[in-house]
Amino acid sequence: MVLTVPDLHDDVVALRPPTPSDVGAITAAVQDPEIPRFTHVPAPYTAVDAVAFVGKAASSWRDGTDASFLVVDRTSGVLLGSVGLQKLDAVAGEAHVGYWVDAAARRRGVATRALRLVTAWAFETLGLERLQAQVFTDNPWSQRVLEQAGFRRVRDAPAAVEHAAGPRPAFVYSRSRDAAD
Ligand SMILES: CC(C)(COP(=O)(O)OP(=O)(O)OC[C@H]1O[C@@H](n2cnc3c(N)ncnc32)[C@H](O)[C@@H]1OP(=O)(O)O)[C@@H](O)C(=O)NCCC(=O)NCCS
Q: What CA–CA distance (Å, rounded) separates 5 from 57?
């Protein structure tokens, strides 16, 4: 899929691709243990991992396979989190969503705002038909984010999802293009 970087923002947050100058802030944010606990981000996480993330994001934007954004404060530009579409499949019209929010920026609606922005772009601009997310069953906070962005729990993941801490049960959430908010 050919991807053009969009201008995505609301009154509070803006989304933009990561750059090498973000390595320090990404590395600092990902030290919070909740991020590797609930995502596939490695732990321990060093600047080498952040450099790899930024490089992979750039090549994936070029290849049209993933669309990785940092979520920043619209006014100050401070890093608040990360959100992305992964496994973009133009033929099937599908992609997966993933995200994390800096511990200091949580409980203020950042993840919900970012997911709503990326979801609207995926449906309205990319023309995708369906977005999916896998969320561990012991992560009710992320399940709430997904529900607030119009996703619905459709089934249990077919098998325990592989994770660095061992396989764990997960739910599959989905939102289709024509679903009402
Ligand atoms: C899950 C996560 C992304 C939520 O980010 P966030 O910006 O705090 O989420 P929001 O502020 O948009 O919150 C959405 C809802 O969840 C609730 N919520 C979020 N975190 C919560 C917590 N720790 N305890 C209780 N409720 C919580 C919020 O109150 C809000 O509900 P409300 O509108 O009814 O009050 C963040 O906690 C995080 O990064 N966790 C670690 C990584 C992770 O889990 N990623 C997702 C993998 S699927």
A: 12
Q: How far is the CA of 19 from the centre of ligand 1 (A)?
A: 25
- Going from N- to C-terminal start, the domains of the chain cover 8-128
CATH code, residues 8-128: 3.40.630.30
User: Separation of 131 CA from ligand 1 center, angstroms?
Assistant: 19
Alpha carbon of 121 to ligand 1 centroid (Å): 21
Which residues of the chain are under the pLDDT cut of 50? none
The pLDDT score that the predictor gives to residue 141 is 98
- Per-residue model confidence as pLDDT tens digits over 79-108: 999 999 999 999 999 999 999 999 999 999
Ligand 1 atom index nearest CA of 134: 48
Q: What is the pLDDT of residue 160?
A: 76
Binding-site residues, ligand 1, Cβ < 6 A: 34-35, 38-39, 99-101, 106-112, 133, 135, 139, 141-142, 144-145, 148
∠ CA 127-128-131, nearest 5°, is 150
Tokens encoding 53 = 């993330």
